[in-house]
Amino acid sequence: MIAQIVRRASSPGFETWWRRVESVGCCAHPIQLVGAGSVGRRQVAWTRCNNRRATVCPSCSDLYARDTWQLVHAGAAGGHHNVPNEVAARPQVFATLTAPGYGAVHNASGARCHPSSKRSVGRCVHGNTLQCNVTHSIGDPIVGQPLCSQCYDYLGHVLFTWHLPELWRRFTIALRRAVAAQLRALGMDRGSVRVSFVKVVELQARAIPHIHALIRLDPLTAPTTQGDQSYHGPAATRGGGESRSGTGGSGWVSPITAGELSALIQGAARQIRVDVLADGGEVRELRFGTQIDAQPLSGDAKAEPVDTAPTARLSPRRVAAYLAKYVTKSLQDFGITARRLSIEAITTLDVTEHVRAVLTTIAELAERVEPMAGIGRWLHTLGYRGHITTKSRRYSTTMGALRAARAAWTRRQSAKHPERQGDTRADGRYPPVTDVPADLDADDVLWKFDHAGHTSAGERTLVYSAALQRIHTRRIGLVEARCQVRDQHGDPPGGHDG
């Protein structure tokens, strides 16, 4: 690898190659596209892999986290990305829906894991001790492992993971019905309030997912994004210049408070039940765990100390940073890559016995339970088949809109500072290629996939290191900027932006 790094850094085409690397933000797995322009000249363009996993591409995952922060914060605080300021005054609740307990596991709560009694040491039916007097740190590899693997309900664990999208779907239906019932009790139209949300799925240390969601109440006819024609009638003049209704403006006051919304969320989550067919014809009842947290948001971001925990005092900035932190995580921490796995590969993986037992249970369900035959395709996600991040349509801006705005900005910058690289040969193994000229519209070229990733581990190491250095430098700059603001004004900005 060192020889590959030296060979690339000393090659005549290094400057050209490095400009291409910087053009995609030091992406560790770029996609190379080739095409022919109007004159038939071969053109080459690089684009990002846009992978959210930090272990795959730190540059793209950092960008994905920042986009997530923008999406969540715009929907919580408003005032940017065409989201009106009024959304900050609407009832908002940060909810966490966890999985039930399927067996005692080691935890990192800051106290002794499972303290034993002075009189006796408890043991399970298999003879294993159910006590642990060690205070585990968060990075301890034993955290999340069951105290007795034979007592742990792996079947229930896998069934919950597989059916979590259905549990969430039923929860949203139950919450909307609960809001409608609350409105009827107040003598109001049941359809006068709309429920909007954004959610992020996080994998706990015991290798089971749970949900973080930011839920907001909106007036039915109020636009969430300014200039969105979908909120105007089809017969409106000039493509949506006339609003359907005059209600739902900046003076709207929700008939349901954030505290009442929190109670409705907890009630809806506790009533959800899903009956599924398990191995041997057994019917299992699935539900959310008893640890359901629902905390109202505070709109005063400046009053929050920077170093407080996310659950100490919630603000839009704090919650946005909290959710953005989890979207870049992957199963790499459990020893599983992002590629699909085969059942035969389970015994060869370098994973804990707990994770191996989860994978084995998935393989058995795929073979024995016909309705769950497709679960075998999701071994690489430990049985979870949903998206990591989802949102309701009118909650905030979209990832596509953020990427389109960034692409437009990049094109404007390129037009201001055109740089032609010309034909260049990177080294003996590379064909002569040409970057897209500034005066050529990339949309007029028929692009085709050429290859993905760098050609050697040495090149990838160079790019990977540069990406980490850029991320570190940017974060240091953010900290220094906040310190200067705090010193000048004596008022902390309230949280970080991921």
From TrEMBL:
InterPro entries in the record: RepSA
Composition bias, Gly residues: 238-251
Chain spans, region Disordered: 225-251, 410-435
Source taxon at top rank: Bacteria
Annotated Basic and acidic residues bias: 416-428
Name recorded for this polypeptide: Replication initiator
Annotated source species: [Mycobacterium] vasticus
Organism placement in taxonomy: Bacteria, Bacillati, Actinomycetota, Actinomycetes, Mycobacteriales
